[in-house]
Amino acid sequence: MEHGVACCIYKCMAEEIEEIRQTFQHSAVNITPTFDGPYGFVVSGNSYGLQNAIQQLQKLPDKVKMHQFKVDKPGIPKYLASDGGQHSIQRLEQQHKVVIEPVGKYARKEDVLAAEAGPNATGRGSTSRVTLRGGATVEVVQGDLTTFRADAIVNAANGQLDHIGGLAKAIADAGGPEIQRECRSHVQRNGVIPDGQVYASTSGRLPCQLVIHAVGPIWKGGYSSEENSLYNAVFESMLAAEQIRCCR
């Protein structure tokens, strides 16, 4: 069960959960939510009560409607992560019986279960590791990106996808001319990539499946939605990587 769905059931459907418990109380049914992922319920009771109570509980997620949207106004995502923003979110949740979950770098602090630093098992240098709720792990490793065996790597690209310097040039040189050739062809057909967007190209000779070229913003003092564009670039990169996994 997804974190947002579970939180909505816990916070907004407490009366329905209690009604299920009372319906089968003659079967000694007890329902306890689990918060330390995976999210769900621990149900105890006799076999008759368990079977029927679980059937009723399994219907609850279908009643939850989810909608995700991006906040483009500068400063709003950062405010939502602040104490004042969290208080506003809690007030809205109570008033309207909803659950509001900021995502990405503005996710709530309680979504991070553990963080650690230490030697990297791959031998590529030091590493920092953060475990999120639901089991996902974010790991930062120091090393040569062009040698990493992964589903995809992300390149810091410009809107023209001209890989002429820095990391972009290192990736293009290691992967071979087909990377620049494909990127140039894409821009000629579709135009310049806007800030916050990505393009996934062939990986050439690199030991990965694809190279995700993410176009980040140029800092202009913080008055041109640079922070939101950077967030979008990271988010779109994650979506592109997810598509690789889904298409296997």
Automatic annotation (TrEMBL):
GO terms for biological process: negative regulation of gene expression; protein poly-ADP-ribosylation. The keyword S-adenosyl-L-methionine does not apply. Residues 125-248 form the Macro domain. GO terms for molecular function: NAD+ poly-ADP-ribosyltransferase activity; NAD+-protein mono-ADP-ribosyltransferase activity; transcription corepressor activity. Pfam families: Macro. It comes from the Eukaryota. One of its GO terms (cellular component) is nucleus. It is found in: Nucleus. InterPro entries: Macro_dom, Macro_dom-like, Mono-ARTD/PARP. Keywords: Glycosyltransferase, NAD, Nucleus, Transferase. This is Macro domain-containing protein. It comes from Ridgeia piscesae. The lineage of its organism: Eukaryota, Metazoa, Spiralia, Lophotrochozoa, Annelida.
